[in-house]
Amino acid sequence: MAITFNIPGPLREHTGGRSHVDIEPGAATVAEALAALCREHPGLRDRILNERGEVREHVNIFVGEESIRYCGGCSAPVKDGAAITLVPAVSGGRMS
Amino acid sequence: METTTFINPKKGTAVLLVGTMKGAFLLSSDANREQWAVSGPHFPGRIVYSLAYDRRGGRQRLWAGSSNFFGIMLHSSDDFGRTWTNPESSPIKFPEDTGQALKQIWQIAVGREQEPDKMYCGVEPAALFESNDAGQTWSLDRGLFNHPHRPQWQPGGGGLCLHTIILDPNNTKRTLVAVSAAGVYRTDNGGDSWQARNQGLTAEFLPNKYPEFGQCVHKIDRHPSRPERLYLQNHGGLFRSDDAGDSWQDIANGVPSDFGFSMVAHPRDPDTAYIFPLDREMRSGPDAKVRVYRTRNAGASWEPLCTGMPQHNVYETVLRDGMATDALDPVGIYFGTRSGKLYGSRDEGENWRPILDGVPAITCVKAVTV
């Protein structure tokens, strides 16, 4: 079964307008799944990851309902059929 | 504020590029600078700290640095904002071996007239990037990045950022940059090596008030026809250099506060410069007034300019790139505030009027003649 990425609105110009993107099964980790996603839609890479390969500070990634911040980061395991959701963090309101 | 889809400036008129915390606005004037057409927001919701205009080689190219949750991007437009590039991949990246990641583009500087494909960007974390192909590809200036002082540089309130790039128009090997809070650095060999140029600049927040480096320089501007003359707004202190930064003299004579962010040199008269002094605690105009200060004698004295601006119970802040002059005659001066107001004067600062109100917090204002 394919792994499905849920794409937030601001990133859909890099997926041809699609809100859901399926990648081939077989990715064992979030990192592998992201690499497959970004091979298909290269404009996503720099929007999700910085040049050190880290998930951007204000981007959250959920596998199912679990935030990867608390289950291994990009090493978090992924199973075929999983839904991975990219979400801009709820981190507004800071006075700067 | 009425906005149009795009502006269509006529040759010889002023165009204002206004960056905000929620996008950019472009303003095009009539011949008298009375009426302004406004387009925007461009990049809605994105922070725009840096804007520039490149007219070299017959171009009419706008540049913008923007950021949001999904990263930092450099955009360009050849049609005054009708369309903008949105590159698939960020053209400005720290090389892997540096261990750094780009946080913000603070400054975009187009190169000298005689180098029409050269461009520079100042970024956070503090570094200088250079392009030799009109902004298509960029490389890190290793001379500055590997400077032995760098490990001791401390971030200012806005982060550790390289926010000012001053190119000597006659000497292609000489460039000066300012970093908060590291101070002024200059190269005389095209970026291979850099030397601190902070002699006479204060660092009032350090035990040693005159260190070799560590000053929190807020902004520098250079006089166009006399490139060795520089004006500097420090984190505490106003300074002038007449030797391209080799030494600095205190020129905070008769100002209500020597704190502020912006500093703008007059485009023709090397003895004239403009500042927007700020109260140190409030970070707004002293005495709750909106006043620009001008010197016409290279800093020997300063005079307030406030006709047409509110003078009672107003608390406006102008950031380091929030003030600009055009090159028309008489000179137009413009500044934007953190409360989203843009003021302008078309008679060298004698009279002012609001141009924009109600836009997001203004981070930068650039004035160009097309």
Counting H and I runs of at least 4 residues, what is the number of helices of chain B? 1
Order of helices and strands of chain B: EEEEEEEEEEHEEEEEEEEEEEEEEEEE
Distance between the termini of chain A: 45 Å
- The overall pLDDT average of chain B reads 96
Helix content of chain A: 10-25%
What's the story with the biggest beta sheet of chain A? 5 strands, mixed
The most extensive interface, with participating residues per chain, is: A-B, 19 and 16 residues
Please count the beta strands of chain A (DSSP E, at least 2 residues each).
Answer: 5
User: Uncertain regions of chain A: pLDDT < 50 for 5+ in a row?
Assistant: none
What percent strand of chain A? 15-25%
- Rg measurement of chain B, Å: 19 Å
**What's the SSE pattern of chain A?**
EEHHEEE
Tell me what portion of residues of chain B adopts beta-strand conformation: 35-45%
Q: What oligomeric assembly is this protein in?
A: heterodimer
Short description:
The complex is a heterodimer of chains A (about 100) and B (about 375). Chain A has about 100 residues and is an alpha+beta fold.
